[in-house]
Amino acid sequence: MHPLRHPRNAAIVGIIFVINAVIFWVWSSLAQGHVDYAGITMLAVLGIAMSLMAWVLVAGSPND
Questions:
Q1: Which pairs from 7-12 meet CB under 8 Å and 24+ separation?
Q2: Which of 37, 52, 54, 60 could form a disulfide with 13 if both were Cys (CB 3.0 to 4.6 A apart)?
Q3: How far apart, in whole angstroms, are the C-alpha atoms of residue 46 and residue 52?
Q4: Model pTM?
């Protein structure tokens, strides 16, 4: 059984990390605290990498 009907749906896996980065940035900005741009960048890049990895794994899996 194929886990997803189409490999492009694997992007949902990485969207979680990108949304987490946006929430982290907004929360830090509204709290008038220190905004850790390195952490925000790493979370966003992790989301992109997770999406790409999930797409490759789903696209390469057999369709049986």
A1: 7/55, 7/58, 7/59, 8/55, 9/58, 10/51, 10/54, 10/55, 10/57, 10/58, 11/51, 11/54, 11/55
A2: 54
A3: 10
A4: 0.68
3-class SS at 14? helix
Chain segment 7-39, per-residue pLDDT in tens: 666 777 778 888 888 888 888 888 887 888 898
CA distance 23 to 62: 36
Residue 42 CA to residue 1 CA, distance in Å, equals 34
